Every structure is written in C-alpha cells, then in structure tokens.
Amino acid sequence: MISKATTKFLKSLQLKKYRRQERLFLVEGEKSVLEVLKSDFKVHQLLVTEKFMHDYAPEITPVKHDVVTEKMLASAGTFVTNNAALAVVEMKPNTPVEVSTGYTLVLDGVNDPGNLGTIIRTADWYGIRQIVASDETAEFYNPKVIAASKGSFCRVNVYYASLEKYLDEAGVPVYGAFMEGENIHEVKFAPSGILLLGNEARGISEKVMERVTCRITIPRYGAAESLNVAMATAIICDNITRFVR
C-alpha cells in the first residue's frame, strides 16, 4: 500500500518541471524496469506487483520496494494498465560525449517524445551508443520517451548541447538527411561520422545546416509526402551499417 502523498508525488514526476526539480524520472512496465535494474542508473524507489516480485525476487530484493496492486500502479504512473512494476530513478548529469569511432546521431529539434524514444531504440539496435541533441529536442526523461525506447535508454547516452559548437569541433563528416540530396544507396559513407536529422516538420535548421558536409536522401518510389523521422533514422542507419561493416 502506498499513501496518497506518495501517489501525488509520483504523478508529479509526469511533469518536466518536477522531474527537473527532483532529479527523478519514472520507468514503467516489466521490460523497462528490468532493464533499469540491470543498468548503472540508481533506482530511488520501486513499486511492484506480487507476481513481478515472485518472478524477479533476486533482482528486486536489493532495492527499496513496495508491493502494490495493478490499480495502484496505473493510478500512480502514465500507463493505462501496468501489471508489473514502476521505478523512480535518479537522473544522470548531462555529460558531454566525444566523437568516437563509428557513428553518432545528432538530432536538431526532434520534439516528438515517441520519435525520440524510437530513435534511441534504433540507435541501440545498430550499436550506436551516443546521441547529441539540441535543447529543442524532446526531453530524454519524458515518460513517453522512456516507454518508446523499450529499455534502450539504459545503453544509449543522450547529451544536450549547442549543435553548432559540437559540429564545428567534431572533425568527422556530417551527413544531413534532406528531402533532396545524394541517394543513400550510392553514398560512400566514411568509417566514422555523424548522422544529422532535423525537426519532423521543418527539417534541419539553417544554422545547423551550414555544418553539413554531405546532404543525403532516401529515394522515394511512391507518392508519400515524407517519412517519419524515426523510420528515416532506421533506414539510413541500416545503409550506413551495411557500407562500413
């Protein structure tokens, strides 16, 4: 059983203002909670159902936890139904990432949380461990981002920074995704580089666009106006991976 005050506190973490104030965020559902328990994130509080406790006792026991009902989990979190667990987790500092071997994703104003979460999951699939994002990009700790990443937020670092400064100092090719550009099937991708993607509606901003060394595009064969940015990320990452590996 949890108190009304605890429930109110947990619900407050659905809002960015209080997440920043408390330096805490929510992780919900069986898979994501198990992922965060195995990660280097510090779990502040854990709410679990009896079944989840029974199934994963070794993982849960070392962490401060309370056994609650599914109804309580749903009322405290953002999921309509949650039959497993909810974790309150400490945020990590916004630590700079250095350009390393391989590829880094750079996101310019990708402000849809679901898209950011899917991009994080895609990066994890293709072995990309770091993303650099503009301040206009959706917040990493938004519950929708965490949910859409399906646990990949534990393995992919997201650093918020001035993209102009970061790209100026990168020292590697910057491949920017545009509606018009070189066909990705014909691009000779460098062994290391940056894949830059822009806002879902407006694309890459002008100041950031100036730092692009190669404009690339996914060839269109049908009549669709555009591709979802998360889908485009996956297609381009697949082509980069096939070329450089």
3D architecture notes:
This protein is an alpha/beta fold. It folds into 2 domains: 4-90, 2-Layer Sandwich (60s Ribosomal Protein L30, Chain: A); 103-244, SPOUT methyltransferase, trefoil knot domain (Alpha/beta knot), CATH 3.40.1280. Helices cover 37% and strands 22% of the residues. The chain contains 11 helices and 10 strands. α7 runs parallel beside α8 (143-149) and α7 packs parallel to α11 (229-244). It starts with a helix and ends with a helix. The mean pLDDT is 95.
Strand fraction band? 15-25%
The parts where pLDDT drops under 50 for at least 5 residues are none
| SS summary, helix count | 11
Strand order of the largest sheet: 7-6-5-9-8-10
- Helical fraction: 25-40%
- CATH superfamily annotation of the largest domain: SPOUT methyltransferase, trefoil knot domain
Average pLDDT taken over every residue? 95
Shape: elongated
Q: What is the structure about, briefly put?
A:
The chain is α/β, with parallel strands linked by helices.
Write the layout of secondary structure elements.
Blueprint: H1 4-12, H2 16-22, E1 24-28, H3 30-38, E2 43-48, H4 50-55, H5 57-60, E3 65-67, H6 70-76, E4 85-90, E5 103-108, H7 113-125, E6 130-133, H8 143-149, E7 157-160, H9 163-170, E8 174-183, E9 193-198, H10 206-209, E10 214-217, H11 229-244
Parallel strand pairs: 2-3, 5-6, 5-9, 6-7, 8-9, 8-10
Antiparallel strand pairs: 1-4, 2-4
Helix pairs in contact: 7-8, 7-11
